[in-house]
């Protein structure tokens, strides 16, 4: 399988957006990524995953409340989702970065 694995997905640390910007709600991102990791495990085991690339492309996350902190950096989450969608479609995500470094599957 090309792209990110479930273990790699679970090990990723997502940073915060720059001061003055609000990113995505962490609890929403974490819940979706947990489901995505399950889907990647299913695909790797030859089972039908609970989600596909279209589900990844369609997900929308809310913004954290003003007193809830800045949330997760949108660019990092979006790059991570591109890697997940590529892995679920069986392709390799190219030109993306995770944690500020080029993604190396």
What does this structure look like?
The protein has 105 residues and is mainly α. It is built from four helices and two strands. Strands 1-2 form a two-stranded antiparallel sheet. Strand 1 and strand 2 form a beta hairpin. Helix 2 packs parallel to helix 4 (74-89).
Write the layout of secondary structure elements.
Layout (H helix, E strand, L loop, with lengths): L5 H6 L14 H19 L8 H6 L15 H16 L7 E2 L2 E2 L3
Antiparallel strand pairs: 1-2
Number of helices: 4
**Proportion of residues in extended strands:** under 5%
Largest sheet descriptor: 2 strands, antiparallel
Task: Report the span from N to C terminus.
Answer: 10 Å
Mean pLDDT across every amino acid position: 87
In short:
The chain is mainly alpha-helical and 105 residues long. The protein is built from four helices and two strands; from the N terminus they run ααααββ.
Which key features would you list for this structure?
105 residues; mainly alpha; two-stranded antiparallel ribbon; 4 helices
């Amino acid at each position: 399988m090309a792209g990110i694995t479930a273990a790699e997905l679970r090990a990723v640390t997502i940073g915060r957006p720059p001061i003055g910007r609000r990113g995505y709600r962490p609890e929403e991102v974490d819940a979706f990524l947990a489901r995505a990791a399950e889907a990647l495990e299913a695909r790797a085991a030859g089972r039908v995953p609970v989600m596909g690339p279209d589900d990844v492309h369609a997900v929308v996350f809310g913004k954290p409340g003003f007193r809830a902190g800045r949330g997760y950096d949108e660019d990092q989450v979006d790059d991570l989702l591109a890697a997940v969608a590529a892995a679920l479609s069986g392709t390799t995500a190219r030109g993306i970065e995770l944690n500020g470094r080029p993604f190396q599957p």
